[in-house]
Design a protein that fits this description.
The chain has 256 residues and is an alpha/beta fold. Helices cover 40% and strands 14% of the residues. α1 packs across α10, α2 crosses α3 and α7 crosses α8. Keywords: Isomerase.
Length: 256
Amino acid sequence: MDSGIGLLAATAAVRRLRPDADLVLSLDPDGMPWGPRTPQDLTRRAVAVAEAAAAHRPDALIIGCNTATVHALPTLRARLEPGIPVIGTVPAIKPAAAGGGPFAIWATPATTGSPYQRGLIEDFADGVAVTEVPCHGLAEAVEHADEAAIEAAVAAAAALTPDEVTTVVLGCTHYELVSERIRAAVQRPGFPPLVLHGSAGAVAAQALRRLGEQPAPRAVADGTLTVLLSGREGSLPEPALAYEEGRLLATVSPAR
């Protein structure tokens, strides 16, 4: 679940690990973007999207959105667990800090500098140089597959990223869809290859662990796909097909 197509990265990661999994994508085009909403309003929208997905009796629910995880995870767990395990998405600050070098966290303006993100930095990156980079308009540009806006937003965030940074944490799930553009914008000549840390792979693996399942990437690819748009059954939004992850999911058979 997510407000928009930021969930593509985690969903595609699940698809690659378990091609036989039936997937339910629950988006909220009527209420997006969630970022500017109050925590209470965002939680209300997230609960509605989650309950629309829960009606399909999934084995687990992944919150494919950092902002929704920050504000709505406790409420969603209280409503759905233990019947449906709820897996949140947390920025990969811990593995980035383990690398030891200076790193940057690219996140939405609402998340940048938030007590939540600062808490993760204090818990996992004490003594490591960290730069918080607000990425104005990048999530919205990715959501609409607006090439010019993506280029401008990535360039603006890259300009705020210190030259000595060796690692970038992608603190918004939308950013994982344009990770190679981010790499190209931040990589400095003469510096070691830039390391990017997203969350999709770890979130997909955690979902399988919560279910006691094992990856089976060679399983028969017979899983189905159901798309919910603010609770209504529909199809993948057209901008999703601009990304590799969206095209992968477009090949999955619709549920019958």
